[in-house]
Amino acid sequence: MTRISIQRHYAAMQPLLTLGQEIRARGHLDAKLVELVLMRCSQINGCAFCLDMHSKDARAAGETEQRLYLLPAWRETRLFSESEQAALAFAEELTELPSHESVSDALYAQLRQHLDEAAVIDLTLLVGLINSWNRLNIAVRTEGGHYKPAAH
Length: 152
Prior knowledge:
Blueprint: H1 10-26, H2 31-45, H3 48-60, H4 65-70, H5 82-96, H6 105-112, H7 117-140
Helix pairs in contact: 1-7, 2-3, 2-5, 2-7, 5-6, 5-7
Domain Carboxymuconolactone decarboxylase-like: 13-93
Protein name: Carboxymuconolactone decarboxylase family protein
InterPro entries: AhpD-like, AhpD_core, CMD-like
């Protein structure tokens, strides 16, 4: 059962929506990578609404079902590029923040082999953004399963 209707408070969500649109519009991150990161963070946080949304958006953007099925075990497959692996590792560490030592120099160096500074900033903003959405949807118990993707 949903506790609060997010739609009723849509104006309050505008800064989050705008940030997401701006990250995508800048084009520093591949559209499929964006959806993979959004899905992986949502898997970690257990946000059903965001998983529903981003799995459908990923498929609409051309992502394969096989990669989506194996996303939780991305380290154990060769289906993800080195660039995607670096971004997913970065997203996981920022989401979990096991310690203040998260995002080691080695991980950051690996990420920088694939992404320039602007892309790293956008990736960091994207991870922060989806963690905010996850927490919001979990707090108000937004139900997953009814999202319809926009036409891509």
